Amino acid sequence: MTKKSIIIDEKAHTELGKLSESLRMNLGVLIQEMIYYFKKTGIDPKDAVNKNPSLMVAALDRRIVSFLKVQERDILKPLRQDVFNYQNAQKEEISKLIISIDKLLNQHSERITEIKKAHLENLNKINSNDGERTKMIISELQKNRQAILLICQLLDEKNKSGTMGKIKSLFS
After folding, report:
1. What is the pTM of this model?
2. Cβ contact 141:170 at 8 Å
3. Number of domains within the chain
4. Superkingdom, according to UniProt (predicted)?
5. Which of 3, 50, 58, 76 is disulfide-compatible with 72, CB 3.0–4.6 A?
6. b/e code 61-84 from CB counts within 10 Å (16+ = b)
């Protein structure tokens, strides 16, 4: 490494000496680190002249807040709106589904009522037919009874054997 000279005024040289002592670096290493620092951070040392660091932090805060507002406007608010729209669409679909289910349940209930009515009518017809059959059977039994009594009368006109009484006792 070759030695280089830098021309600076006496006040700056004194400040540079104090700074190198407080950071425990020699002047060459301190200057080298300053160069790398300004290069890496992109800070212009001329801008720092007569500026309060708190003002620089406040400016940086404003930039961060501005960045966050842009992010909110461009990303978060549209995302929130999309979620809100999706939620409303979900509610609408659920409402439609509930209406469809209610409609199907009503149709099912009506169909069950119709089936019950049809079964009741069929049972009533069966009961009616059973009653008619019973009457017809009773009528036939009475005819048979009369026929048997008539046959007995013809066979034993004077009822000498007592067949007529026996048959009448069986029918009563």
Report:
1. 0.43
2. no
3. 1
4. Bacteria
5. 76
6. eeeeeeeeeeeeeeeeeeeeeeee
pLDDT in tens, the chain (172 residues): 678 888 889 999 999 999 999 999 998 899 999 989 888 877 777 776 656 777 778 888 999 999 999 999 999 999 999 999 999 999 999 999 999 999 999 999 999 999 999 999 999 999 888 888 999 999 999 899 888 888 888 877 777 777 777 777 877 7
Domain assignment of residue 144, yes or no: no
Query: Has residue 139 been placed in a domain?
Result: no
Domain-embedded: residue 72: no
Q: What's the sign of the alpha-carbon dihedral 144, 147, 148, 149?
A: positive
**Range(s) of the domain holding residue 28:** 8-49
The pair of structure tokens assigned to 146 is 């009369």
Q: CA angle, 132 as apex, 130 and 136 as ends, to 5°?
A: 115
List Cα–Cα distances, 41 to 23, 44, 56, in angstroms: 19, 9, 14
